[in-house]
From TrEMBL:
Ranges for domain Tetrahydrofolate dehydrogenase/cyclohydrolase catalytic: 62-177
Pathway: One-carbon metabolism; tetrahydrofolate interconversion
NCBIfam families, per the entry: PRK14186.1
Protein name: Bifunctional protein FolD 4, chloroplastic-like
InterPro entries referenced in this protein's UniProt entry, alphabetically: Aminoacid_DH-like_N_sf, NAD(P)-bd_dom_sf, THF_DH/CycHdrlase, THF_DH/CycHdrlase_cat_dom, THF_DH/CycHdrlase_NAD-bd_dom
Alphabetical keyword list: Hydrolase, Multifunctional enzyme, NADP, One-carbon metabolism, Oxidoreductase
Record domain Tetrahydrofolate dehydrogenase/cyclohydrolase NAD(P)-binding: where: 198-345
HAMAP family, alphabetized: THF_DHG_CYH (MF_01576)
Gene for this chain: LOC104737688
CDD domains noted in UniProt: NAD_bind_m-THF_DH_Cyclohyd
Coiled coil: none
Length: 350
């Protein structure tokens, strides 16, 4: 195939889903490949098919950026109160291995967000060819540092490093990403509570709550089964009393399943994979996918595209997250929230 990026919403279902084989997570190291040659619609989102007439209602746009700002403003107040009362400043350590351009953007955004709320950020940039031992050593340094309350190892790691070994090494009390197997295990068990819930899935649920979208008793479908988004998102929805299905690369007729979903979360990283016809009228649609697609008409030379064919979906859904300014900013807000929760726990602060 010339390009793996579906910018026109036109490729067949099976070839779309086959990409789940390789693209099994929303957070992928892949650079954007394939040159755009297809005409784009006025909105620039690249969808060319209209599902309903122009008189059809359009979905509420779930403004993740605005909700994230509210959350950050609340955290900012609490952080300053903590500093005033007990003299403690929350600390978040970020370990970045290698020079992934997209990772660098996220790390920069996290740092800015920390500055905004008053969380001290510790950044460690390790060279691409760092050994596993070196990364483990820095993790254990932060584990032992009392001024650090949260540790985040930016994923993906270079392929010569065993991700599991690194994630296992993060102290569960500082695992603000919620990726430690013990935290995930607890998330999967009834009657158990993880110390932290992964930020992106938590941000998705938070958006549903903030927009008063009922989860209890509803049918929820998650596309993608990655450890960091799809799987924990499904677990969280189940904990909220939804009836949950997970769609993955081996799922037959995925669109028949998504059409039953009152709540649809897509976390694949495959631009425009989910068509308007996959969506149940009135459904709430959360788009976790975020990919750079080459676009010479923009100043940066690319634009960000989600898994959901937004233009089509927004005519069918009742509520939908945009990309950007949907789930992305919420991920960062949840990271700050987890870091503050961790600091409160360490210092027994209410
Ligand atoms: N250990 C680990 N934890 C993560 O949470 C983690 C990670 N590794 N690796 C990379 C992914 C990706 N991720 C994003 C966070 C914010 C935006 C975000 O703020 N996006 C903006 C746009 C940013 C831009 O302009 O590029 C938006 O959607 O509006 C996106 C993606 C967290 N990740």
């Amino acid at each position: 195939m010339a390009s793996m990026i579906f910018t026109d919403c036109s490729t067949s279902t099976m070839s779309r889903l086959n990409h789940l084989n390789r693209l099994n997570g929303a957070f992928l190291p892949r650079p954007c490949v394939g040159k755009l040659s297809l005409p784009r619609t006025a909105s620039g989102r690249g969808c060319t098919l209209s599902i309903r007439s122009s008189s059809s209602p359009s979905a509420i746009v779930i403004n993740g950026k605005a909700e994230a700002k509210k959350i950050k403003d609340d955290i900012k107040i609490e952080v300053s109160r903590m500093k005033e009362l007990i003299g403690v400043v929350p600390g978040l350590a970020v370990i970045l291995v290698g020079e992934n351009k997209e990772s660098a953007t996220y790390v920069r955004n996290k740092k800015k967000a920390c500055e905004y709320v008053g969380i001290k950020s510790f950044e460690l940039l390790l060279p691409e060819d760092s050994s596993e031992e070196e990364v483990l050593k820095s993790v254990s340094g932060f584990n032992d540092d009392p001024s650090v309350h949260g540790i985040l190892v930016q994923l993906p790691l270079p392929s010569h490093i065993d991700e599991q070994n690194i994630l296992n090494a993060v102290s569960i009390e500082k695992d603000v990403d919620g990726f430690h197997p013990l935290n995930i295990g607890r998330l999967a068990m009834r009657g158990r509570e993880p110390l932290f819930v992964p930020c992106t899935p938590k941000g998705c649920i938070e958006l549903l709550h903030r927009y008063n979208i009922v989860i209890k008793g509803k049918r929820a479908v998650v596309i993608g089964r990655s450890n960091i988004v799809g799987m924990p998102a499904a677990l969280l929805l189940q904990r909220e009393d939804a009836t949950v299905s997970i769609i993955h690369s081996r799922t037959e007729n995925p669109e028949e399943i998504t059409r039953e979903a009152d709540i649809l979360i897509s976390a694949v990283g495959q631009p425009n994979m989910v068509r308007g016809s996959w969506i149940k009228p009135g459904a709430a649609v959360i788009d976790v996918g975020i990919k750079r697609v080459e676009d010479s008409s923009t100043a940066r030379g690319y634009r960000l595209v989600g898994d959901i064919c937004y233009e089509e979906a927004s005519k069918v859904a009742s509520a939908i997250t945009p990309v950007p300014d949907g789930v992305g900013p919420m991920t960062i807000a949840m990271l700050l929230s987890n870091t503050f929760t961790s600091t409160k726990r360490f210092h027994n602060f209410q």
